[in-house]
Specification:
Length: 283
């Protein structure tokens, strides 16, 4: 649980650097205990260098999986995560590039399949957000980047990975509480997260007869590098304080849901959204 004092802070580059956060995020799955639920499986995780992606990658490794970590440019964070995946007993492959490019997604999947001999799990996790107080202030370039990263890239990655998924394969998407509760300063971001919910449900129906499950996790506020790289310092200091639990989650509190959905424990679950949000409810 995140109990350390969070100071006002801001990073000028998105999606942000883990090492520049105070306090450092809890995203290394240190207390997670594996039980072989993913033995012999291979996963590709976008945004795998830090935050939810990092914690999920390490938890997957503790469960016996090998992991391809796809990241934009945060090389040190990615190298650190690779090391922790390997310490947890898994193999790790780093692939740097922009998932907004469909051809890159094809190349990333091809590298993962060549390295590990197959693909069983796709985790579409990477995202960006550009807060604005007024819809009139949303910049066209920022809005396009948000949609390309948050939803277009998911489709590109599925198109690239689907030919390699066999029966019992799965796809897990990172949605958000904002898809259900809304967020007045993240209008375009929230719209992409709503699209992810519909994408998840539709794709699940499309693939169910092939034995491939598709689900999503919708976190509430989570302390990851995306937060100080998105919001101003004062907003960062208060981030998550309006949650019913009075705080933001850690990535380590989110990643077990990804393990569950990837494992055989969820073999009768598809087209569903797991809400890990600290007690928020919707009408």
């Amino acid at each position: 649980m995140e109990t350390r004092q969070r100071e006002p802070q801001h990073q000028d580059h998105q999606p942000g650097r883990r090492g520049e956060m105070t306090p450092p995020p809890s995203d290394s799955a240190e207390s997670y205990k594996g039980s072989g639920k993913l033995t012999g499986k291979t996963a590709i995780i976008t945004g795998g260098d830090s935050g939810i992606g990092r914690s999920t990658a390490i938890a997957f490794a503790k469960e016996g999986a090998d992991v391809c970590l796809v990241y934009l440019e945060e090389s040190q964070d990615a190298k650190d995560t690779k090391s922790l995946v390997e310490q947890a007993g898994g193999q790790a492959l780093l692939v740097e590039g922009d998932i907004c490019d469909a051809s890159f997604c094809q190349k990333a999947v091809a590298k993962a399949v060549k390295e590990f001999g197959g693909l069983d799990i796709i985790v579409n996790n990477a995202a960006v957000q550009y807060p604005q107080d007024d819809i009139a202030d949303i910049k066209a370039d920022d809005m396009e980047r948000t949609f390309r990263t948050n939803i277009f890239a998911m489709i590109y990655m599925v198109q690239a990975g689907l030919p390699h998924l066999k029966k019992d394969g799965c796809i897990i998407n990172t949605a958000s509480i904002t898809a259900f509760a809304g967020q007045p300063v993240l209008i375009d971001y929230s719209a992409t997260k709503g699209a992810i919910v519909s994408f998840t449900r539709s794709l699940a129906k499309s693939l169910v007869k092939k034995g491939i499950r598709v689900n999503a996790v919708a976190p509430g506020p989570v302390w990851t590098p995306l937060i100080p790289s998105s919001f101003d310092a004062d907003a960062v200091a208060k981030f998550g304080s309006d949650n019913p639990m009075g705080r933001a989650a850690t990535a380590d509190e989110i990643s077990p849901s990804f393990v569950f959905l990837a494992s055989g424990d969820a073999r009768f679950i598809t087209g569903q959204i797991i809400h890990v949000n600290g007690g928020e409810h919707f009408g």
